Amino acid sequence: MAVSTPMSAIRTASSSTQAQESRPAPKKKFLRLPTIIETTGLSRSTIYRKLDDGNFPRPVRLGPKSVAWIESEVQDWMDQLASSRDMLRVG
Questions:
Q1: Model's pTM, two decimal places?
Q2: Are 10 and 2 spatial neighbours (Cβ–Cβ below 8 Å)?
């Protein structure tokens, strides 16, 4: 005995799959140092000191004399810092 599936269910499943496939991946945005300073509120020397200590996202080399940071990585770092603040207890 054959099972009948309504055409609307087939169309919905098909269009749902197509929507997922055609959805663009999140775009990476590069931020240069002045924007990083403005976004984080940190000074240039503090940013590079944190980089040396391994406590800040690594930049991406764009050319022989230029670097930039990936926006989402900096945002994740800021979110993590804020989350750790929320976990601290005031004694």
A1: 0.67
A2: no
CA angle 61, 26, 47 (to 5 degrees): 40
Query: Which pLDDT does position 73 carry in this prediction?
Result: 97
pLDDT tens per residue across span 41-90: 999 999 999 999 999 999 999 999 999 999 999 999 999 999 988 777 54
Q: How many CB atoms lie within 10 A of CB 4?
A: 6
Question: Per-residue b/e over 28-58, b at no fewer than 16 CB within 10 Å?
Answer: eeebeeeebeeebeeeeeebeeeeeeeebbe
Sequence ranges of the domains in the chain: 30-87
Compute φ and ψ for 29, nearest 5 degrees. -120, 130
